[in-house]
Amino acid sequence: MADISLQHIYKTYDQSVTAVNDFDLNIHDKEFIVLVGPSGCGKSTTLRMIAGLEDITEGNLIIGDKLMNDVPSKKRNIAMVFQNYALYPHMNVYNNIAFGLKLRKMKKDEIEKKVKRAAHILGIESLLDRKPKELSGGQRQRVALGRAIVREADVFLMDEPLSNLDAKLRVQMRAEISKLHKQLQTTMIYVTHDQIEAMTMADRLVIMKDGVIQQVGTPKEVYNSP
Ligand code: ADP
Ligand code: ADP
Questions:
Q1: Ligand 2 site-directed mutation target among 92, 94, 96, most atoms within 8 Å of CB
Q2: Do residues 157 and 54 lie in contact, with contact meaning Cβ atoms separated by under 8 Å?
Q3: How far apart are CA 30 and CA 181, in angstroms?
């Protein structure tokens, strides 16, 4: 269960830039939330605070019934996918996906089961022995997703995961991520500056500007509002 409550959250950088200004939102378990808005409006900062990669200046982050503000990133049951899917160039796909599990000293056969399941979900079973440089952009992005899937986290955070892909592939991957969300039954928080992407994927949109939430609603509600 992963209801996420962001209660009056602020982020100030260098005691001057207010990147996030009174972000207040309840996210339901298994909901697909999209944070959308122009570059610099505070989307990534919000995501990074949820991930524990950035301190919260003020306000509370609660996941389930637990106050998370001071819980280190590693101890949060969260998986994250960034736009520049930093794969390890010298490792094959299998080991790129398995890397985090190996760090956790999981048993070899258990790792293999999880990697193969993720690869099956993503349709990359035939690519496990390839190196990243032998993959297309879309295939690399799937490997990055595979890495996140094997963490079996309750919460998935994605920061512009498709922005390096060409237009056609972006449309295809949007549908795949929506499908993945249904399959994994996780709470998703997805950041994009692309309004169409936001509209097609979100259960609810959170529209941000200058660090402030402008509007929250379903795509229909947002689209129909003046
Ligand atoms: P977005 O993801 O919507 O593009 P960000 O969250 O990256 O926006 O940035 C929000 C604001 O915070 C911007 O004004 C940005 O310049 C500033 N900012 C982001 N990261 C830092 C940082 N590490 N130090 C100082 N200012 C930052
Ligand atoms: P080496 O350390 O000899 O270079 P690798 O890095 O290729 O070997 O593999 C490290 C581990 O990952 C090994 O335990 C190997 O069995 C496993 N592995 C790599 N690729 C695959 C694959 N396609 N299917 C199953 N296991 C794999």
A1: 94
A2: no
A3: 8
Q: Find where tokens 């070899």 sit.
A: 108
Pocket test for ligand 2, best of 95, 96, 116, 126 (most atoms within 8 A of CB): 95
pLDDT digits (tens, 9 = 90+) for 121-174: 999 999 999 999 999 988 998 999 999 999 999 899 999 988 888 888 889 889
E-assigned strand segments in 43-198: 58-63, 66-67, 78-81, 155-159, 187-192
Helix 137-149 to helix 93-103 angle (10° resolution) is 20
Q: Going by C-beta distance under 8 Å and a sequence separation of 6 or more, which residues neighbour residue 57?
A: 10, 11, 12
Stated as kind and residue range, the H or E segment containing 181 is helix 167-184
Q: Determine the distance from the C-alpha atom of residue 207 to the mean position of all C-alpha atoms in its chain, rounded to a whole number.
A: 17
